[in-house]
Amino acid sequence: MASASAQSPLSQNQKTDDSVVAGVAFARYLLIGCWKNLIDTLSTPLTGRMAGSSKGLAFILGAEGAKEQNQKEKDSICLSLDGLRRAARLSCALGVAANCASALAQMAAASCVQEEKEEKEIQEPSDAIAQVKQKVEQKLEQMGKVQGVCLHTAHVLCMDAVLNVGLEMGSHNQDCWPHVFRVCEYISTLEHTHFSDGTSQPCLTITQSQQAPGGPHSDTELGEASQEQTPEQETTLSSNPVIQPVSIQELVKESSKGRAFDFRGGSLLCGTSAAKAVLTLSTQADRLFEDAADKLNLMALAGFLYQLKKASQAQLFHSVTDTVDYSLAMPGEVKSTQDRRSALHLFRLGDAMLRIVRSKSRPLLHLMRCWSLVAPHLVEAACHKERHVSRKAVSFIHDILTEVLTDWNEPSHFHFNESLFRPFERIMQLELCDEDVQDQVVTSIGELVEMCSTQIQSGWRPLFSALETVHSGNKSEVKEYLVGEYSMGKRQAPVFDVFEAFLNTDSIQVFANAATSYIMCLMKFVKGLGEVDCKEMGDCVPGSGSASTDLCLPALDYLRRCSQLLAKIYKMPLKPIFLSGRLINMPRRVQEQSASSEDGIECILSDFDDDTGLINVWIILLEELTTAISNCPRQHQPPTLDLLFELLRDVAKTPGPGFGIYAVVHLLLPTMSLWLHRSHGDHSYWDVASANFKHAIGLSCELVVEHIQNFIHSDIGYENMINTMLKDLFKLLVACVAEPTEIISRVGCSCIRYVLVTAGPVFTEEMWRLACCALQDAFSATLEPVKNLLGYFHSGSESFSGDACEVKVAAPSLSPSAEAEYWRIRAMAQQVFMLETQCSPKTPSNKEGFEHAQSCVLVIDLPPDKKPNGHTQRR
Fold first, then answer.
1. Which residues contact 792 (CB under 8 A, 6 or more apart)?
2. In the Cβ-directed half-sphere of 215, how many Cα atoms lie within 13 Å?
3. What's the pTM value of the predicted model, to 2 decimals?
4. 671-702: per-residue pLDDT in tens?
């Protein structure tokens, strides 16, 4: 059967006659029929009583085992391993991949004995007697053990056989890959153990013992195994001269020269021979991964990467997932990798993906499929708690993106680059990574933009989504990419180079695809990077004021440039499609059509919207800015207000007056109403927020007056829209007048007077009706408390405490300012209820008196008979 496998047409690329083909088919039929019994028989010595003892296969086959173990048991184990090697090679030659997995599993379990031993040592027995017994066994083992890592020749040959057939069998059956990866991991561990520190580490020893009590069979097998090296393998060895191209079989034969074979005993090998064996196995493992990346077809390559991903997950986490999609959580609890840092499958996975990307023979479709398998695991590894793992994962992502962007041009309408940058977005959005990983991601993004900004194409959207989640952190040192001196006219923070490169892109369609993400990312810098925690946004000032402003001002400048670019695109005869704007368009229209149909605003807006999504992106920009004027830190509010009203004036020119009025009615005035009600009746809120609110309400009135003066006499017919805008403005100003805080109430009165005086000359009859209704509402709101108070006194009554009920004034103890406040309130009452000639001389305003008056409370006690329960009611 061995010779038949050597003549198999599956292993030779030459034309054979029908008799050989028939023989191979018959051999395959026999092998399938007896495979289960064959594997069970060959596995019995490896899983029997002696192999399952605490000493394990390493002790049984080691040199120290020759003195204590039965020689027949050693021979049976060697014969078993030899049979498994032959069975694996034969199944590979005959193309029976489904059967080979069981043989590889047995050989991997038998070869990686040191790995199993270390895992067993980690699990300490809970029983005291068992612990003592284990320590005694370990002591006895150490006493009879030769210093160094002991391996048997059968183990080395098994690992060599697994590596030789692993690629062929794995390509047909991906269940073989875990066993191949286990052997590769063990080889990397041996290499690291032997060569990491030549002075402190003992030499690697290999014990030579023959597999069967027949010497000629051994020579025959070694000769046949060495003859099975194909010309392609020899070419690969010569093209990669890392070490001398010597096979494991030749090393074993060379180590036995000058000695007589003792098939029941063994001899120790160390030094150069041991180093050659380990290096040869390591080179074979490296070549296996290289050939897998270069030669496997797409289906086999996907299975290879999927199994390698699962093997890497098993090393990094305590659980393994079967899915290959991005997850919102890690696969399981993080596992320590300190004991196997040199043998992580993550390094193999990253190197394999890099080799696939650099391959000139693979199409872009292969890259896309492989990246969808590898990228989610790189995201998981980037969020690992051990820094050497996360650093390497982010580094792999950066290197892969660099290679793809350098060597590949993204085809039109084929948004592969968006999936390329998706890992950066997921790493930042999961918020499971530490600040060092965030800094590494942002730095990588900056380097990629600097080198390949024109090739990013559809990758801008996830790139901006990643930057949107940047936070300043809690460390005392300032991040370099967030440092700038923009306010002094010097350079801006390096992070804004990304936005500069995006605006300078040559493709308008690229800008259209990522415009919304670009706006949302910049608004993150306007609203602050989370320097401090506040009960409500906008209610506190960040700790580092100047640094925060240096991020806000350039962000506002890039938002201004975005609006200007939108205006240029709007004037183009052929506009690009703003896909994100069109997606947002559907729910917006359904929500606003019912609210705006009666005033005609929705109809006017449809005149500007051409279904390209541009108008919707413009609305997003203005909406985010109007929301930010009340939500951003207070030191950001003045420049944000200036930019907002600058853009509101610009959009009244392009796209036109209808869009400008729409922005005031649907964006500006509702936001101002929400800001007004944010105090929730708390007077202390306006102590720090009143300045910016007065600034905003004044600019709003000024903008509305300009729109009225400019568009009331236009021939397009904006009268209904202007009436709606004026009505909403008066409603806002009346709400300001009704605010209990005097400073806000006075602002409302002043703004009503400004609107009537400035825009009154161009008012129509309907506008004056709206103005009169607003004045009536303002009077009703302000005089309602007085009206309620007068209701408790009869006409012509001289009672101070009330007629219908008892009225008391609860005031604090007298202070020096009480009298001054009394005269101030009296003057205000005379100003309201008397003519100017009837008023007494005015008294200057006194702040302390004002505070005293604010603390006075009117207590109104209704008589008991006015309540059904007979109790007194207080109001």
1. 802, 803, 804, 805, 807, 860
2. 7
3. 0.78
4. 999 999 887 777 788 888 899 999 999 999 99
